[in-house]
Amino acid sequence: MNIPFEFKNTKQERPEMKKTGTTTLGMLCKDCVVVAADKKATMGYLIANKESLKIQTLDDHIVMTVAGSLGDAQTLAKYLKAELKLFKLANGRNISVKGAASLLSNILQNNKFYPYFVQLIIAGYDDNGPSMFTLDAIGSCEEEKKFFSTGSGSPMALGVLEDNFKENLSIEEAKKLAHRSIKAAINRDIASGGNGIDLCTVTKNGIKITKTSI
């Protein structure tokens, strides 16, 4: 039997996206929130960048950590920076950390059928003190009271945090624990690494990000 036409596979291959591989974490301590991240970005088996910045400053009191598609995360960061500036202009005050997390949750939920491929931590310091929220690709938003980790290396980081975290850690103690947790993930997770570890503290005095060696 002759077939007058043939079906062709019209499916196009999706271009390789740059991913952060990633281990990031956030931790609440006395009068501060500490976040940390490795610096490796990958494209498949290629290390695309060894100096990737996975801690995005959204305002002078809020930061966001990045895990997943780097392009999606950078787009969301630009979007949020603009929205937070508009909020400040309209209301004459900074948005709360919870308000920023709720805004991001709504953005992610509204795009759930064409999602941003990300897992994020929003952390900051406002009138209520330090706080931290975790979000997934479709807008789930949970407040974390102690610590959390995202990315492919998170199981290793969470193991260190579970074993060593204590309430009311000092800033220096929290930074040391954060560094140790990220280092543990880098040592065991093939997608985490890069040239150093970024450590960030957010206090009532603002945001400070420092790069440390592994």
Describe this structure in words.
By secondary structure, the chain is α+β, with helices and mostly antiparallel strands. It has a single domain (24-40, 49-212), classed as Aminohydrolase, N-terminal nucleophile (Ntn) domain (Glutamine Phosphoribosylpyrophosphate, subunit 1, domain 1), CATH 3.60.20. 30% of the residues lie in helices and 32% in strands. It contains 4 helices and 12 strands, in the order E-E-E-E-E-E-H-H-E-E-E-E-H-H-E-E. It has helices at 70-91, 97-110, 154-164, 171-188; strands spanning 24-29, 32-37, 41-43, 46-49, 55-59, 62-68, 118-126, 129-135, 141-143, 147-150, 197-203, 206-212. The strands form 3 sheets. The chain has a 5-stranded antiparallel sheet, with helices on one face. A 5-stranded antiparallel sheet has the order 5-6-7-8-9, with helices on one face. A two-stranded antiparallel sheet has the order 3-4. It is globular, with a radius of gyration of 19 Å. The N and C termini lie far apart (68 Å). The model is unreliable at 1-8 (pLDDT under 50).
What is this entry, summarized?
This protein is an alpha+beta fold. Helices cover 30% and strands 32% of the residues. The chain has one domain: 4-Layer Sandwich (Glutamine Phosphoribosylpyrophosphate, subunit 1, domain 1), CATH 3.60.20.10.
Provide tags for this entry.
globular, 4 helices, alpha+beta, 32% strand, 30% helix, Glutamine Phosphoribosylpyrophosphate, subunit 1, domain 1, 5-stranded antiparallel beta sheet, 214 residues, disordered N terminus
- The share of residues in helices is 25-40%
Q: Overall 3D geometry? A: globular
Question: How many whole angstroms does the radius of gyration measure?
Answer: 19 Å
CATH superfamily: Aminohydrolase, N-terminal nucleophile (Ntn) domain
Named CATH architecture: 4-Layer Sandwich
Q: Could you tell me the strand content as a percent range?
A: 25-35%
Task: Report the count of strand segments.
Answer: 12
N-C termini distance: 68 Å
Please give the domain count.
Answer: 1
Which CATH top level class fits? Alpha Beta
What is CATH's topology name? Glutamine Phosphoribosylpyrophosphate, subunit 1, domain 1
Mean of the pLDDT scores? 92
Q: Which series of helices and strands comes N to C?
A: EEEEEEHHEEEEHHEE
* Largest sheet descriptor: 5 strands, antiparallel
How are the strands of the biggest sheet laid out side by side?
10-1-2-11-12
Low-confidence stretches: 1-8
